[in-house]
Design brief:
By secondary structure, this protein is an alpha+beta fold. It has two domains: 248 residues, Glutamine synthetase/guanido kinase, catalytic domain (Creatine Kinase, Chain A, domain 2), CATH 3.30.590; 85 residues, no CATH class. It is 44% helix and 15% strand. An eight-stranded antiparallel sheet has the order 2-3-4-5-1-8-10-9, with helices on one face. The longest helix is centred in the C-terminal third of the chain and has 27 residues. It is globular, with a radius of gyration of 21 Å.
Length: 357
Amino acid sequence: MKRAAKNDACCWEAIERNTSWVLERAASATVVSSRIRIARNLSGFPFPHNMTFRQAVEAENEVWRAFLGFRSSGREIYMLEMNALSEMEKGFLCERHMVSREFTRSSMPCSVAIFPGEKISVMVNEEDHLRIQSFRPGERLEEALLDADRLDDHLSGQLSYAFSGRLGFLTSCPTNIGTGLRASVILHVPGLDVSGRGKEVMKEAGKQGVLVRGFYGEGSRSMGSFYQVSTRETTGKDEKEIIENLQVVVNLTVREESKALLLLSNSKEKMEMERSLKRRLRSSTLSSYAFFSLFSRLVLARKLGIAGFDTEKIGRFLHYALPNHMQLKAGRKMSPEERDEERGRMVRERLRRCIDV
């Protein structure tokens, strides 16, 4: 069994094939995916932002050795040094939510381990020494937590974590001290957006102690009708309480999306929605934001009975409208204008064939 593929070019096809967890249900579900993130630090090292280059290398090597003893349910664990990757490869991992945008810009030694069997990625030397991310399609936070805990338990037996009997796990950001756990979901709510209630509902969600962010989390814009909703502070809360707080907001949003869909299904605007959708499907160029907007309208049209399509087949188009996915597939760097033209061609020549409207 191959345990690690350190920057092995042959691994990219397998990573691409086995890591579509985040958007797997983008065309069919309101709760597209769930993520559990656990932050951990090593007791013998400063936090990453205070480490020297040599300390960063030493911390990275300790973590890598600990990974190699983990029994993955998949065939392989892919371990990639970020500084050895191209900008497109880094961008691809970011677009798959395997790594953060900030992580791709780091000049310090850092790496990511990807566990396809567990649907887990681990950033090494990000804001904390370890950022364990466990993903599940749909609303499955508890399952994501179980797999994250299994890896965390293994690593805690191999590594010495920074821990305080009074405070819990010590983290670079004070808001993560305690369990070090954050929970988040990606929501797709085209009904709320088109009905004009999206901002109102998301503002109300923010009052419930969660963070409402764009598609890529902190500092990012929303794309189409996709939003990332995350727990805020973990200090003083246990894992169960953190997840339950998020689920309250998720359940509220799902109910409001259902109400919006019901109102729209009885609306006189359905005919105009159909005409607008047909115009968009003939677009000559599309930015990634415009493509996501089109995708959200397509999903809404299906839910309202305006259009019909295979959700799994349509869902596959979403990743390949993203800039770095497009460029890796083309095998070269493309200008923004070239990418916009390629998306328009993809919609006219391939996507339209899959839709009955």
